[in-house]
Amino acid sequence: MGVPTGDVEVRYLPADRMVVERIIRWQVDHYRESFPSFDYDDWIDFYGPHMRGQDGPLPVVLGAFDGTECIGTVAIVERDDLDDVDHYTPWIAAMIVDPSHRGHGVGRSLLAAALGRCRDLYFSRVHLWTHDQFEWYRRLGWREVESRKFRDIPITIFSLDL
Ligand SMILES: CC(C)(COP(=O)(O)OP(=O)(O)OC[C@H]1O[C@@H](n2cnc3c(N)ncnc32)[C@H](O)[C@@H]1OP(=O)(O)O)[C@@H](O)C(=O)NCCC(=O)NCCS
User: Could you tell me if the CB of 102 is within 6 A of ligand 1?
Assistant: First the structure.
């Protein structure tokens, strides 16, 4: 909701990395002399929670489209359906490519887009679990952090630092 002030409209700050980077430049410049210890990271700590959003930027569901046809999808969620993993957030979830379009880089593109969105929200680490795609994620730089069972099936939790 906007609050008009003359010609200027005051709106919620968008979860937009370009906007926040610009504001942080103002802040760092402004405080450089008096508070040189206020550095970029302090401002990220300050704006990060906003960017991650109390008003809920997650879940995000992305689709890969070939023209109008959706050929793959991936989601970013705050919490996954495993027990006792509240210390891990967010999660890349529900990654899938249409079987007839696999092996052509669609999955990689979806994952790259999802990771880009996580970076824009100032997450520094993301997580996922898989019961069968270990090699795919390893090749893309993910590292295994934990093995366990989910509904009696062995799964592995992977993390990636952004
Ligand atoms: C896993 C999945 C999403 C990969 O999507 P995709 O579009 O086929 O993958 P990409 O073509 O982007 O793969 C990128 C690279 O990984 C390779 N690759 C593809 N599938 C792979 C697999 N299962 N294991 C190892 N490498 C694989 C590709 O050959 C490609 O290699 P290159 O960069 O050397 O050419 C897709 O196979 C799928 O939907 N599987 C079923 C659902 C699923 O398992 N989802 C993951 C749940 S955790």
Answer: yes
